[in-house]
Amino acid sequence: MIKEVIYNSNLLKGTGLIQEMLVLIDAYSKGESPNDFQKRVLEEGLLSKSTDNRTIDVVRNIFKTRFLEKKIDVPEAIRLMREEYVSMDVVIQLFFIYTCRANPILGDFIRQVYFPAIEKGILNITAEDPKIFIRDAISDERIPKKWSQSTIVKVSEHINACLIDFGLTEKNKEIRSFRIIDLSANYLAHELHFSGFSDNEILYHEDWELFGLIPNDVAQILERISYKGTFLFQYSGQILKIGWSYNNMKEFIENECR
After folding, report:
1. Which tens digit of pLDDT belongs to each residue from 131-158?
2. CA-CA distances (angstroms) from residue 87 to 23, 184, 186, 202?
C-alpha cells in the first residue's frame, strides 16, 4: 500500500554530505537558533570550501531539516557519541535515518524499491529505478505538481548518490549487504522512546523498514540487545513492554556507548 505522503525535490540540496554534517554537529551549540548558527558558520568559515550561498543552503535546508528542532537534541546526542569514539559506521547509519526522515522520497524508495529488489535477487539498482519511482509518484500525486524531465533526472541521481553515501550500494550501483548495527538499533529505540512513542509504536515504526526490518525482526533485535542489560524486554507476540533504564538520551549514551 502506498502511503499518503507528498514528496518534494529538497534532496537536490545535497546528498549524504557526511563530512559537512560532522563539522556542523561538532560546531553547533545547544539551544542555538538556526539563524544564529547559520550566521556563525558564515562568520567563522566552518564550511571553507563552500560559497556563502552554498553554506546558507547547507545549514538552512540540510542541517536544519535533518537535525534541528526535534523532540530530542540530535546534534548533542551524536556529538556525545563521537566523544565516546563510537564507530563511524554507527554515526553514518544515524545520519541515514535522519536524512530519510527529512526526505521521504528517499526513504520510500528504499522501502518500496531497494529492499524488494533484494528479495527478488536483483544485484543492482540502476539509474532508471529512481526515475520510474518518481514517475509513478507523479502519476499517483505523491508529487502533486509535475516535475520537468531535468528535475526527475537530477533527483534520481541524488537518490542513487545517497545509496552510495550511506553504504547501501557500491559506486557501480551494485547492492551491498546492509544491516542495522546493534548500537544503531539501540539508539533508534531510545530516540523514539524519548520522542514520545509508546513501546508498541516503536516496534511498528517505519524507520526500521529503512533496514529491511519487519516488527518480528525488530523484536528479535531488541530482545538480543536487552540481554546486555540495556532494558527489560517483554513481548507476547502482539504487545511489547520495555522497562527503560535511562531517563534521557545523555544517560543512554554515557552508559551504552563506552
Report:
1. 999 999 999 999 999 999 999 999 999 9
2. 16, 10, 14, 24
Residue 1 has a pLDDT of: 41
Q: What is the pTM of this model?
A: 0.95
Q: Which of 189, 227, 199 is nearest to 94 (CA)?
A: 189
**φ, ψ at 242 (rounded to 5°):** -115, 130
* Residue 58 · residue 47 · CB < 8 Å: yes
Q: Which residue has the cell 526515475?
A: 131
Residue located via cell numbers 519511482: 133
How many CB atoms within 10 Å of residue 40? Answer: 15
Strand partners, 242: 233
Angle between helix axes 74-83 and 249-256 (nearest 10 degrees) is: 20
Surface-to-core class of residue 120, CB atoms within 10 Å of its CB (0-12 exposed, 13-18 middle, 19+ buried): exposed
Q: Can you read off the three cell numbers belonging to residue 134?
A: 518518481
| CA dist 71 → 85, 101, 250 (Å) | 24, 14, 14
Question: 51, exposed or middle or buried, with CB in 10 Å at 0-12, 13-18, 19+?
Answer: exposed
Q: Assess whether pLDDT exceeds 80 at residue 3.
A: no
Residue 88: predicted pLDDT: 97
pLDDT tens by residue, 5-61: 899 999 999 999 999 999 999 999 988 999 999 999 999 999 988 899 999 999 999
- The C-alpha cell at 17 is 554530505
* Residue 1 DSSP class: -
